[in-house]
Write a structure and sequence with these properties.
Helix content of chain B: 10-25%
Largest sheet of chain A: 5 strands, mixed, barrel
Order of helices and strands of chain B: EEEEHHH
Strand content of chain A: 25-35%
CATH topology of chain A: OB fold (Dihydrolipoamide Acetyltransferase, E2P)
Order of helices and strands of chain A: HEEHEEEEEEEEHHHHH
Strand order of the largest sheet of chain B: 1-2-4-3
Number of domains of chain A: 1
Shape of chain A: elongated
Largest interface: A-B, 58 and 50 residues
Radius of gyration of chain B: 15 Å
Structural class of chain A: alpha+beta
Radius of gyration of chain A: 23 Å
Distance between the termini of chain A: 88 Å
CATH topology of chain B: Collagenase (Catalytic Domain)
Shape of chain B: globular
CATH class of chain B: Alpha Beta
Helix content of chain A: 25-40%
Largest sheet of chain B: 4 strands, mixed
CATH architecture of chain A: Beta Barrel
Structural class of chain B: alpha+beta
Number of strands of chain A: 10
Oligomer: heterodimer
Number of helices of chain B: 3
Number of strands of chain B: 4
Chain lengths: 268, 118
Protein backbone atom coordinates (compact mmCIF):
# COMPACT_ATOMS: atom_id res chain seq x y z
CA UNK A 1 0.00 0.00 0.00
CA UNK A 2 1.40 3.37 -0.93
CA UNK A 3 2.16 5.93 1.72
CA UNK A 4 -0.62 8.20 0.46
CA UNK A 5 -3.14 5.40 0.96
CA UNK A 6 -2.02 4.98 4.57
CA UNK A 7 -2.40 8.70 5.08
CA UNK A 8 -5.91 8.74 3.62
CA UNK A 9 -6.90 5.69 5.62
CA UNK A 10 -5.49 7.18 8.81
CA UNK A 11 -7.32 10.41 8.12
CA UNK A 12 -10.62 8.56 7.65
CA UNK A 13 -10.06 6.58 10.86
CA UNK A 14 -9.29 9.74 12.82
CA UNK A 15 -12.36 11.51 11.42
CA UNK A 16 -14.46 8.49 12.28
CA UNK A 17 -13.12 8.38 15.84
CA UNK A 18 -13.63 12.10 16.37
CA UNK A 19 -17.14 11.90 14.93
CA UNK A 20 -18.00 8.98 17.18
CA UNK A 21 -16.49 10.78 20.13
CA UNK A 22 -18.64 13.82 19.47
CA UNK A 23 -21.80 11.80 18.84
CA UNK A 24 -21.36 9.94 22.12
CA UNK A 25 -20.25 13.12 23.92
CA UNK A 26 -17.01 11.50 25.02
CA UNK A 27 -15.29 14.42 23.33
CA UNK A 28 -16.55 17.66 24.83
CA UNK A 29 -15.92 20.85 22.92
CA UNK A 30 -15.35 24.14 24.77
CA UNK A 31 -18.55 25.53 23.29
CA UNK A 32 -21.62 26.41 25.30
CA UNK A 33 -24.85 27.28 23.58
CA UNK A 34 -28.03 28.55 25.09
CA UNK A 35 -31.15 26.49 24.49
CA UNK A 36 -33.81 29.15 24.92
CA UNK A 37 -34.02 32.89 25.58
CA UNK A 38 -36.31 33.53 28.53
CA UNK A 39 -37.45 36.47 30.60
CA UNK A 40 -37.74 35.99 34.32
CA UNK A 41 -40.04 37.53 36.88
CA UNK A 42 -37.73 36.38 39.68
CA UNK A 43 -35.16 39.04 40.49
CA UNK A 44 -32.15 36.92 41.35
CA UNK A 45 -29.97 39.94 42.10
CA UNK A 46 -31.49 39.88 45.58
CA UNK A 47 -30.58 36.66 47.40
CA UNK A 48 -33.76 36.91 49.47
CA UNK A 49 -35.72 36.24 46.28
CA UNK A 50 -33.48 33.30 45.38
CA UNK A 51 -33.92 31.65 48.78
CA UNK A 52 -37.62 32.48 48.86
CA UNK A 53 -38.30 30.83 45.52
CA UNK A 54 -36.35 27.69 46.37
CA UNK A 55 -37.85 24.62 47.95
CA UNK A 56 -34.46 23.42 49.19
CA UNK A 57 -31.12 25.04 49.78
CA UNK A 58 -28.49 22.54 50.85
CA UNK A 59 -24.88 21.47 50.76
CA UNK A 60 -24.45 18.47 48.54
CA UNK A 61 -21.60 16.31 47.33
CA UNK A 62 -21.96 15.10 43.77
CA UNK A 63 -21.43 11.35 43.64
CA UNK A 64 -21.87 10.77 39.93
CA UNK A 65 -23.76 11.69 36.80
CA UNK A 66 -26.60 9.25 36.41
CA UNK A 67 -28.25 10.15 33.16
CA UNK A 68 -29.40 12.66 30.60
CA UNK A 69 -32.71 13.12 28.95
CA UNK A 70 -35.31 15.44 27.64
CA UNK A 71 -38.37 16.38 29.60
CA UNK A 72 -41.87 16.16 28.17
CA UNK A 73 -41.42 19.63 26.67
CA UNK A 74 -38.21 18.64 24.94
CA UNK A 75 -35.70 20.41 27.16
CA UNK A 76 -32.40 18.76 27.84
CA UNK A 77 -31.32 17.91 31.40
CA UNK A 78 -28.55 15.97 33.10
CA UNK A 79 -29.10 14.09 36.34
CA UNK A 80 -26.69 13.65 39.21
CA UNK A 81 -26.72 11.56 42.34
CA UNK A 82 -25.97 13.94 45.20
CA UNK A 83 -25.29 13.15 48.84
CA UNK A 84 -26.79 15.68 51.24
CA UNK A 85 -24.19 17.05 53.65
CA UNK A 86 -26.22 19.77 55.38
CA UNK A 87 -29.37 21.84 54.95
CA UNK A 88 -30.00 25.57 54.94
CA UNK A 89 -33.65 25.46 53.83
CA UNK A 90 -35.58 22.22 53.99
CA UNK A 91 -34.66 18.91 55.49
CA UNK A 92 -33.13 16.56 52.95
CA UNK A 93 -31.02 13.58 53.87
CA UNK A 94 -29.19 10.70 52.27
CA UNK A 95 -28.86 10.73 48.49
CA UNK A 96 -31.07 12.69 46.14
CA UNK A 97 -31.19 13.16 42.38
CA UNK A 98 -30.45 16.68 41.19
CA UNK A 99 -31.26 17.73 37.64
CA UNK A 100 -29.36 20.43 35.81
CA UNK A 101 -30.96 22.11 32.81
CA UNK A 102 -28.09 21.38 30.50
CA UNK A 103 -26.61 18.56 28.52
CA UNK A 104 -24.30 17.61 25.69
CA UNK A 105 -25.39 17.10 22.11
CA UNK A 106 -22.65 16.13 19.68
CA UNK A 107 -19.98 17.40 22.04
CA UNK A 108 -21.55 20.85 22.48
CA UNK A 109 -23.00 21.81 25.83
CA UNK A 110 -26.51 23.24 25.66
CA UNK A 111 -27.97 25.04 28.62
CA UNK A 112 -30.94 27.10 29.66
CA UNK A 113 -28.86 28.82 32.30
CA UNK A 114 -28.16 32.50 32.24
CA UNK A 115 -24.68 33.84 32.20
CA UNK A 116 -23.01 34.23 35.56
CA UNK A 117 -20.89 37.30 35.36
CA UNK A 118 -22.48 38.45 32.18
CA UNK A 119 -24.98 37.16 29.74
CA UNK A 120 -24.99 35.15 26.62
CA UNK A 121 -23.53 36.91 23.65
CA UNK A 122 -25.77 37.50 20.65
CA UNK A 123 -24.21 34.42 19.09
CA UNK A 124 -25.73 32.40 21.88
CA UNK A 125 -22.38 31.20 23.12
CA UNK A 126 -20.76 31.68 26.46
CA UNK A 127 -17.67 30.32 28.08
CA UNK A 128 -17.18 29.27 31.65
CA UNK A 129 -20.36 27.33 32.21
CA UNK A 130 -20.06 23.70 33.19
CA UNK A 131 -22.06 20.77 34.50
CA UNK A 132 -21.78 19.74 38.14
CA UNK A 133 -18.59 17.79 38.68
CA UNK A 134 -18.48 14.37 40.28
CA UNK A 135 -16.65 14.45 43.59
CA UNK A 136 -17.25 18.17 44.13
CA UNK A 137 -19.33 19.68 46.92
CA UNK A 138 -21.59 22.61 46.22
CA UNK A 139 -24.07 24.90 47.88
CA UNK A 140 -27.19 24.10 45.85
CA UNK A 141 -30.44 26.01 45.36
CA UNK A 142 -33.20 23.80 44.03
CA UNK A 143 -36.86 23.51 43.25
CA UNK A 144 -38.78 20.27 43.03
CA UNK A 145 -39.76 18.73 39.72
CA UNK A 146 -43.23 17.30 40.24
CA UNK A 147 -42.91 15.42 36.96
CA UNK A 148 -39.68 13.53 37.55
CA UNK A 149 -39.90 13.76 41.35
CA UNK A 150 -36.34 15.06 41.47
CA UNK A 151 -34.69 18.25 42.63
CA UNK A 152 -33.82 20.67 39.88
CA UNK A 153 -31.15 23.32 40.01
CA UNK A 154 -32.40 26.83 39.46
CA UNK A 155 -31.01 28.17 36.23
CA UNK A 156 -29.53 31.26 37.80
CA UNK A 157 -25.77 31.12 38.25
CA UNK A 158 -26.52 31.50 41.96
CA UNK A 159 -28.05 28.04 42.00
CA UNK A 160 -24.71 26.45 42.75
CA UNK A 161 -21.59 27.60 44.53
CA UNK A 162 -18.54 25.41 44.43
CA UNK A 163 -17.20 24.68 47.91
CA UNK A 164 -14.52 22.03 47.58
CA UNK A 165 -13.44 18.88 45.78
CA UNK A 166 -11.01 17.75 48.46
CA UNK A 167 -11.36 13.97 48.57
CA UNK A 168 -9.59 13.74 51.93
CA UNK A 169 -12.57 15.26 53.79
CA UNK A 170 -15.08 12.82 55.24
CA UNK A 171 -18.70 13.95 55.48
CA UNK A 172 -18.31 15.34 58.99
CA UNK A 173 -15.27 17.41 58.08
CA UNK A 174 -16.97 18.37 54.83
CA UNK A 175 -19.97 19.70 56.73
CA UNK A 176 -17.71 21.71 59.02
CA UNK A 177 -15.71 23.05 56.10
CA UNK A 178 -18.81 23.94 54.09
CA UNK A 179 -20.41 25.77 56.97
CA UNK A 180 -17.36 27.98 57.25
CA UNK A 181 -17.88 29.05 53.62
CA UNK A 182 -19.04 32.65 53.29
CA UNK A 183 -21.70 31.87 50.69
CA UNK A 184 -23.25 29.29 53.02
CA UNK A 185 -23.21 31.69 55.96
CA UNK A 186 -24.77 34.37 53.78
CA UNK A 187 -27.76 32.23 52.82
CA UNK A 188 -28.20 31.11 56.44
CA UNK A 189 -28.26 34.79 57.38
CA UNK A 190 -30.82 35.56 54.68
CA UNK A 191 -33.26 32.65 55.11
CA UNK A 192 -35.36 34.31 57.86
CA UNK A 193 -35.73 37.36 55.59
CA UNK A 194 -36.54 35.38 52.44
CA UNK A 195 -39.04 36.89 50.01
CA UNK A 196 -41.45 34.31 48.69
CA UNK A 197 -42.03 34.34 44.94
CA UNK A 198 -45.55 35.63 44.33
CA UNK A 199 -46.61 33.14 41.62
CA UNK A 200 -45.50 30.28 43.86
CA UNK A 201 -47.47 31.76 46.75
CA UNK A 202 -50.56 31.90 44.53
CA UNK A 203 -50.07 28.29 43.56
CA UNK A 204 -49.52 27.18 47.15
CA UNK A 205 -45.98 26.14 46.27
CA UNK A 206 -44.02 27.44 49.26
CA UNK A 207 -42.81 24.28 50.93
CA UNK A 208 -40.08 24.85 53.55
CA UNK A 209 -40.80 28.58 53.80
CA UNK A 210 -39.36 30.15 56.93
CA UNK A 211 -42.85 31.16 58.03
CA UNK A 212 -43.96 27.53 57.94
CA UNK A 213 -41.41 26.43 60.53
CA UNK A 214 -42.39 25.84 64.16
CA UNK A 215 -41.77 28.93 66.36
CA UNK A 216 -38.91 27.38 68.29
CA UNK A 217 -37.16 26.44 65.04
CA UNK A 218 -37.65 29.98 63.74
CA UNK A 219 -36.11 31.45 66.90
CA UNK A 220 -33.12 29.15 66.66
CA UNK A 221 -32.50 30.02 63.00
CA UNK A 222 -33.01 33.74 63.60
CA UNK A 223 -30.35 33.68 66.34
CA UNK A 224 -27.96 31.91 63.99
CA UNK A 225 -28.80 34.36 61.20
CA UNK A 226 -28.06 37.34 63.48
CA UNK A 227 -24.64 35.89 64.23
CA UNK A 228 -23.82 35.58 60.51
CA UNK A 229 -25.27 39.00 59.70
CA UNK A 230 -22.88 40.59 62.19
CA UNK A 231 -19.97 38.55 60.92
CA UNK A 232 -20.65 39.35 57.26
CA UNK A 233 -21.85 42.90 57.88
CA UNK A 234 -25.27 42.27 56.31
CA UNK A 235 -27.66 45.08 57.23
CA UNK A 236 -31.09 44.42 58.67
CA UNK A 237 -33.73 44.31 55.98
CA UNK A 238 -36.95 46.27 56.09
CA UNK A 239 -39.72 43.87 57.07
CA UNK A 240 -41.41 42.59 53.92
CA UNK A 241 -45.18 42.58 53.71
CA UNK A 242 -47.05 39.31 53.68
CA UNK A 243 -46.81 37.94 50.21
CA UNK A 244 -50.08 36.10 50.01
CA UNK A 245 -51.84 39.08 48.50
CA UNK A 246 -49.03 40.32 46.31
CA UNK A 247 -50.74 39.62 43.03
CA UNK A 248 -53.96 41.56 43.72
CA UNK A 249 -51.82 44.44 45.04
CA UNK A 250 -49.66 44.45 41.93
CA UNK A 251 -52.75 44.09 39.80
CA UNK A 252 -54.36 47.18 41.26
CA UNK A 253 -51.14 49.23 41.07
CA UNK A 254 -50.70 48.17 37.49
CA UNK A 255 -54.28 49.10 36.56
CA UNK A 256 -54.01 52.44 38.34
CA UNK A 257 -50.81 53.25 36.52
CA UNK A 258 -52.10 52.21 33.12
CA UNK A 259 -55.87 52.77 32.85
CA UNK A 260 -55.55 52.61 29.07
CA UNK A 261 -54.52 48.98 29.36
CA UNK A 262 -57.96 47.75 30.31
CA UNK A 263 -59.36 45.56 27.59
CA UNK A 264 -62.49 46.93 25.91
CA UNK A 265 -65.73 45.46 27.11
CA UNK A 266 -67.26 42.92 24.77
CA UNK A 267 -70.03 44.30 22.64
CA UNK A 268 -73.36 42.87 23.82
CA UNK B 1 -53.70 23.23 29.14
CA UNK B 2 -52.02 24.59 26.05
CA UNK B 3 -53.60 27.17 23.78
CA UNK B 4 -51.95 27.80 20.46
CA UNK B 5 -52.00 30.78 18.23
CA UNK B 6 -50.16 30.98 14.94
CA UNK B 7 -48.58 34.23 13.93
CA UNK B 8 -47.30 34.61 10.41
CA UNK B 9 -44.64 37.28 10.59
CA UNK B 10 -44.17 37.12 6.86
CA UNK B 11 -47.07 38.37 4.70
CA UNK B 12 -47.75 34.87 3.47
CA UNK B 13 -49.85 32.68 5.78
CA UNK B 14 -48.86 29.52 3.98
CA UNK B 15 -45.67 29.51 6.01
CA UNK B 16 -45.61 29.98 9.75
CA UNK B 17 -42.53 31.82 10.94
CA UNK B 18 -43.29 31.81 14.63
CA UNK B 19 -45.65 29.99 16.92
CA UNK B 20 -46.87 31.45 20.18
CA UNK B 21 -48.36 29.19 22.79
CA UNK B 22 -49.46 29.42 26.38
CA UNK B 23 -48.20 26.70 28.71
CA UNK B 24 -48.51 26.11 32.41
CA UNK B 25 -45.28 24.77 33.77
CA UNK B 26 -45.07 24.29 37.47
CA UNK B 27 -42.51 21.54 37.30
CA UNK B 28 -39.96 23.19 35.17
CA UNK B 29 -36.48 24.31 36.03
CA UNK B 30 -37.19 27.69 34.52
CA UNK B 31 -37.47 29.40 37.83
CA UNK B 32 -39.67 32.42 37.49
CA UNK B 33 -39.53 32.40 33.71
CA UNK B 34 -42.61 34.15 32.43
CA UNK B 35 -41.89 33.37 28.80
CA UNK B 36 -39.15 32.05 26.54
CA UNK B 37 -38.19 31.92 22.88
CA UNK B 38 -37.01 28.61 21.44
CA UNK B 39 -34.90 29.29 18.35
CA UNK B 40 -35.02 25.68 17.20
CA UNK B 41 -38.76 25.28 17.44
CA UNK B 42 -39.24 28.93 16.42
CA UNK B 43 -41.75 29.31 19.17
CA UNK B 44 -42.53 31.62 22.02
CA UNK B 45 -44.01 30.01 25.10
CA UNK B 46 -45.80 32.07 27.71
CA UNK B 47 -45.88 30.45 31.11
CA UNK B 48 -49.29 30.94 32.64
CA UNK B 49 -48.12 29.30 35.87
CA UNK B 50 -45.90 32.31 36.55
CA UNK B 51 -47.89 35.02 34.78
CA UNK B 52 -51.29 33.95 36.02
CA UNK B 53 -53.11 36.83 37.67
CA UNK B 54 -50.84 39.53 36.27
CA UNK B 55 -52.22 42.22 34.00
CA UNK B 56 -52.36 42.22 30.20
CA UNK B 57 -49.66 44.90 30.41
CA UNK B 58 -47.14 42.50 31.89
CA UNK B 59 -48.16 39.77 29.45
CA UNK B 60 -47.68 42.25 26.63
CA UNK B 61 -44.30 43.26 27.98
CA UNK B 62 -42.91 39.72 28.25
CA UNK B 63 -44.32 38.73 24.85
CA UNK B 64 -42.74 41.77 23.23
CA UNK B 65 -39.44 40.93 24.91
CA UNK B 66 -39.57 37.45 23.41
CA UNK B 67 -40.45 38.85 19.99
CA UNK B 68 -37.23 40.78 20.35
CA UNK B 69 -35.38 37.48 20.80
CA UNK B 70 -37.20 36.06 17.78
CA UNK B 71 -35.85 39.01 15.82
CA UNK B 72 -32.34 38.12 16.95
CA UNK B 73 -31.88 40.59 19.79
CA UNK B 74 -30.04 39.46 22.91
CA UNK B 75 -30.82 40.23 26.53
CA UNK B 76 -29.38 43.39 28.02
CA UNK B 77 -27.84 43.19 31.43
CA UNK B 78 -26.44 40.22 33.33
CA UNK B 79 -27.80 38.41 36.31
CA UNK B 80 -25.10 39.50 38.66
CA UNK B 81 -24.55 43.09 37.59
CA UNK B 82 -26.68 45.21 39.89
CA UNK B 83 -24.78 48.28 38.74
CA UNK B 84 -26.18 47.83 35.27
CA UNK B 85 -29.46 49.48 36.25
CA UNK B 86 -29.41 52.03 33.47
CA UNK B 87 -30.83 49.42 31.13
CA UNK B 88 -33.76 48.49 33.32
CA UNK B 89 -36.09 50.59 31.20
CA UNK B 90 -35.16 48.59 28.11
CA UNK B 91 -37.53 46.10 26.58
CA UNK B 92 -34.70 43.58 26.23
CA UNK B 93 -33.55 43.82 29.84
CA UNK B 94 -33.36 40.22 31.05
CA UNK B 95 -35.45 40.87 34.11
CA UNK B 96 -39.15 41.67 33.81
CA UNK B 97 -40.21 44.82 35.65
CA UNK B 98 -43.31 43.68 37.48
CA UNK B 99 -44.09 47.04 39.05
CA UNK B 100 -43.76 49.01 35.81
CA UNK B 101 -43.64 46.71 32.79
CA UNK B 102 -41.77 48.11 29.81
CA UNK B 103 -44.12 48.58 26.89
CA UNK B 104 -42.11 50.10 24.10
CA UNK B 105 -38.53 49.75 22.88
CA UNK B 106 -36.03 52.07 24.50
CA UNK B 107 -32.94 53.69 23.01
CA UNK B 108 -30.73 50.65 23.56
CA UNK B 109 -33.36 48.32 22.08
CA UNK B 110 -33.67 50.45 18.97
CA UNK B 111 -29.91 50.73 18.58
CA UNK B 112 -29.56 46.94 18.76
CA UNK B 113 -32.48 46.47 16.37
CA UNK B 114 -31.12 48.84 13.72
CA UNK B 115 -27.68 47.32 14.08
CA UNK B 116 -29.18 43.91 13.42
CA UNK B 117 -31.62 45.08 10.74
CA UNK B 118 -29.97 48.11 9.04
Amino acid sequence: MKKIHYLILSFIVVIGLVGTGLRTNIIKLPIVKKTISPISLLDTRDDRNVVGAAENVFIGKVIKQTGTGKDKFGFLYTQFEVEVIDNIKGNLSGKVTVEQSAGYINGVLYTVEDGGDGYFEPTGERSGFSLLKSGATYLLVTGYNTDTLNYYLFTSAKSRTFITDDKKLDNLKLKEFANSNEAVKRLRAIYPDEILFAPFVSAGNTKNSFMSLPPEEQEKLKAEAEKYKKELNIPDYEPTPARQNIIPEVLQQDIDAHPESQLPQAVQ
Amino acid sequence: MIKEKMIAIAPSVSRVDLTVDVVSRSDIPFDGYGAWFDPVEKSISINDYVLHGYTPILWNSVLTHELGHALGLADIGGVNDPENTIYQGSLMYRQANIQNPVQIPGGHDKADYYYKWP
